[in-house]
Amino acid sequence: MKRRHFMPALIGLTAKGESNIAGGFVYEARNEGHRIRDRAIFRPPAGTRRARIVIIGGGMAGLSAAWWLRKQGFDDFLLLEGEDEPGGNARWGQNDICAYPWASHYVPVPNTESTLVRELFAELGLMDAAGNFDERWLCHSPQERLFLHGRWQWGLDPEAGTTATDREHRRIFAEHLRALTATSQFKLPMALGRSPDASLDQLSMRDWLAREKLTSAYLGWEVDYGCRDDYGGASGDISAWAGLHYHAARQHDTKGPFTWPEGNGWLARRLVDRVKAQLVNGVWSRNIERVGNRWHLRTTGFNVEADALIYAAPSFLLPYLLEGAPKPNFDYSPWLTANLTIEQPMETAWDNVLYDSPSLGYVNATHQMLASRVNRSVWTYYLPFTGATAAQRRRLQSQDYAYWKESILADLERAHPGLRKVVSRIDIFRQGHAMRRPRPGFLAESEAWKKAVERPTFRLANSDVSGLPLFEEAQYRGVEAARACLAALGFIKKLDRA
């Protein structure tokens, strides 16, 4: 299915001037990143700190690297985060109703090969060593619903208006997924799978559907939704290998997913608790230099000297920090996330999706509450910007708060007429480079980037190195980077994969 051009349809909306709706933009720290990009002059660092290992970036990859180092009994490291709060794409917020996510909001029940995730989840009490889940932390029912043809249906597989052809194409697609899963190339984390079929990475997901003659518009929408959900790109923008991984890598006979009011912020909070002695927030890295056999790092707070460096920040920033580092040939999807405060009870599922919307719909942060009646709630709304990323990034940043507030309300009011009357606040988070988009050819691009940059004591950890912006990938990359650095420094003898 060729998606309609939804985003331009919003152009021309004007704010209705609801004076009772408060809010604004949050986390507008991109100017700090732009200052580093533009080689701005900063105040000289105050003093020098020394550590055997320094980790740049306090998102899930950096937190996971730090978590693993502490589990090995190694604590001579620093974890540096530019924002005032760590978490990266697992950051969260809180109001008088509940906590809520600003980005990632769930983790699927970990597959058997996801041993690191299972180890962490057992440590946090989410499951036991035998793999039995504590169902208190699994998503409650009803989990998902879809607004289609003017009404809500339970589940995300379109039902109303489907034909025999639609159902047959869905069945054939499921058969393809079973066959692909059996090849063992689709694993979480992806490095544990067999060598990927490179030919699938040369096609877009939309072209793969066309090649297989799967022309059902409903199936096309489902596949496109999956690409936008995980990667921020339409099916025509995404590698078929990545698009198929979205479906084939997940074990479908399990319950789940794990979710919390604050989304993956629940995990970030607990990782922070384990590494807070080494964590320094509000410090932006400015320059990385190799001097002799040590790494010298200048930050907006102090200098750091270290024997090994784990780079867990987004890869596109590295050339602005490390002289001579090549620019990665990666594409990053812009996103808008908003949290809406709802002032009256409304029936929802956890995940609420609107068919033929540019957005992914919204999740209800109060869904996991056990109260029989919840009078107020917080909805987290997700809007990926598909198409040419540079143009969409400019558009995201150029429109003001009133424009985006009205765009969000206009989208949601198709399913909730009069919604603006019960919304008291809308806060909006704009991310110009939310996550890497795995376009066709991304597998080769990832390998080339790693080979060009990594050294025994300099390791890449961000999930964008994988190309799949998933918790499992961020955790694995962080741990593997930490493992490699300890090996290079002689603290462990070999690099057995987890």
Write a structural description.
This protein is an alpha/beta fold and 498 residues long. It has three domains: 6-28 and 332-436, no CATH class; 42-90 and 262-330 and 439-488, FAD/NAD(P)-binding domain, CATH 3.50.50; 164-248, Guanine Nucleotide Dissociation Inhibitor, domain 1 (Orthogonal Bundle), CATH 1.10.405. It contains 13 helices and 17 strands. Strand 10 (294-299) and strand 11 form a beta hairpin. Helix 6 crosses helix 8 (240-248). The protein is globular.
Can you describe this structure in just a few lines?
The protein has 498 residues and is α/β, with parallel strands linked by helices.
How would you classify the helix and strand content by structural class?
alpha/beta
Helix content: 25-40%
CATH superfamily of the largest domain: FAD/NAD(P)-binding domain
CATH architecture of the largest domain: 3-Layer(bba) Sandwich
β-sheet strand percentage? 15-25%
Care to count the β-strands?
Answer: 17
User: Globular, elongated, flat, extended or rod-shaped: what is the shape?
Assistant: globular
Instruction: Please give the CATH class of the largest domain.
Output: Alpha Beta
Radius of gyration over alpha carbons?
Answer: 22 Å
The largest beta-sheet arranges its strands as: 1-16-12-15-14-13-6-7
Q: Spans of 5+ residues with little confidence (pLDDT < 50)?
A: 1-17
Task: Give the helices and strands as they follow along the chain.
Answer: HEHEHEEEHEEHHHHHEEEEEEEEHHEHEH
Mean pLDDT: 91
Biggest sheet features: 8 strands, mixed
N-to-C CA distance: 40 Å
